[in-house]
Amino acid sequence: MKLNITQLISAVQKADKFSFPEMNKGTTYLYDTVFRKISNGTAVFLSELDFDAFSADDVHTLSDLYDDVIEKNYDKADSIVTTLRGITPMSKATAYV
Q1: How far is the CA of 27 from the CAs of 30, 31, 52, 71, 72, in angstroms?
Q2: Are 65 and 27 in contact (CB under 8 A)?
Q3: For residues 81 and 52, is the Cβ–Cβ distance under 8 A?
Q4: How many Å apart are CA 82 and CA 78, to the nearest integer?
Q5: Alpha-carbon distance 49 to 26, whole Å?
Q6: How far apart are CA 95 and CA 97, in angstroms?
Q7: For residues 61 and 27, is the Cβ–Cβ distance under 8 A?
Q8: Would you kindly state where each structural domain of the chain is located, as residue ranges?
Q9: Which string of b and e fits 56-73 if b means at least 16 CB within 10 Å?
Q10: Contact status, residue 70 vs residue 27, Cβ threshold 8 Å
Q11: Is the full-model pTM beyond 0.70?
């Protein structure tokens, strides 16, 4: 598979910027303290959580956020990474002066 770098750069520049919807303090706490760590393969222990920092509604909000926003963008990024990894590197002749 051949890759047109100019097209790739153009597509990246035209892509919509990803941004989270506004989150309240509790949802932000859960995202930063739980979801982000789990996503990076880091263990999260119940003893580390401040249960006064969020409510059950915040858990539902984060769950909806994952279903509506995070998972879809993760799938897009994963698809791009898979495609780029499948491209065979090619050397290009260098022009000497």
Answers
A1: 5, 6, 12, 17, 19
A2: yes
A3: no
A4: 6
A5: 12
A6: 7
A7: yes
A8: 18-85
A9: eebeebbeebeeeebeee
A10: no
A11: no
At a CB cut-off of 8 Å and minimum separation 6, what does 66 contact? 35
Query: What's the one-letter identity of residue 66?
Result: Y
Q: pLDDT tens track of the chain, all 97 residues?
A: 566 777 777 777 776 665 666 788 998 999 889 888 887 889 999 999 999 999 999 998 888 887 766 666 677 777 777 777 777 776 666 666 6
Calpha distance 97→92 (Å, rounded): 16
How is residue 87 annotated by DSSP? Answer: S
